[in-house]
Recover the amino acids of this structure.
């Protein structure tokens, strides 16, 4: 999952919604995943994944600008016995693809949206490709995390992913009822989160609009990403 990250204390506790997760130190994180407790599609009001929807974003970091196209595909992938929706992200810079990623999400019957991993390729200028950012829940001790609580409201932090020493992103809902204006439009009743990593520096604020999903982010390093358009194929 793409974002700038922040170092945090090693003993942050996890607050989970929907499926249960242990309320023990991070090293004991063991969310209970029951495949029978998941729905066939993701329809959370703040994180809807309607197949065929294409979101286009622009990300600015100083003088650099990237274009990101996020497509909700019709494909699925089974991870830990759970059928996940596949989302395809392509990031381009100066007309060149720099990152190509497939993310896997699923929603439990209580409404919580879980993140089950990603297959990502970072393409360098010399043509070499790195897949070091890839991980899959259930493989090599990796575990899924929460990308959007069932009923988002300000509260404690939760794990968004867990592959020890490799993928340790955290999230926390810090505000609701926010208003955001981006090129794609103006949105009210947005959920604002703070995202960071337990193993890297930095943090990022994200806004999610009802009926749309992610619309804007602002990192501690000054990077800004905004939704430019939504189309349906």
């Amino acid at each position: 999952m793409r974002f700038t990250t922040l170092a945090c204390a090693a003993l942050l506790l996890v607050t989970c919604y929907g499926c249960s997760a242990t309320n023990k130190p991070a090293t004991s994180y063991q969310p209970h995943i029951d495949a029978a407790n998941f729905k066939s599609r993701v329809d959370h009001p703040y994180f809807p994944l309607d197949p065929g929807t294409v979101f286009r974003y622009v990300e600015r970091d100083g003088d650099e600008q990237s274009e990101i196209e996020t497509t909700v595909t019709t494909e699925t992938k089974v991870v830990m016995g759970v059928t996940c929706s596949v989302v395809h992200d392509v990031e381009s810079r100066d007309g060149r693809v720099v990152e190509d990623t497939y993310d896997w999400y699923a929603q439990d019957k209580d409404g919580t949206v879980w993140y089950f991993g990603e297959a990502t390729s970072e393409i360098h200028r010399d043509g070499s490709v790195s897949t070091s950012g890839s991980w899959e829940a259930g493989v090599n001790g990796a575990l899924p995390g929460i990308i959007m609580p069932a009923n988002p409201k300000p509260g404690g932090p939760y794990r968004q992913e867990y592959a020890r020493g490799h993928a340790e992103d955290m999230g926390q809902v810090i505000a609701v009822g926010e208003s955001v204006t981006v090129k794609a439009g103006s949105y009210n009743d947005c959920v604002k989160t703070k995202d960071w990593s337990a193993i890297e520096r930095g943090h990022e604020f994200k806004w999610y609009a009802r009926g749309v999903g992610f619309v804007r982010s602002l990192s501690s390093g000054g990077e800004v990403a905004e939704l430019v358009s939504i189309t349906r194929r």
User: Anything to note?
Assistant: Confidence is low (pLDDT under 50) at residues 2-26. The first strand starts at residue 43 and ends at 44. DSSP finds no helices and 17 strands in the chain. Residues 26-232 form a domain with the YmcC-like fold fold (CATH 2.40.360).
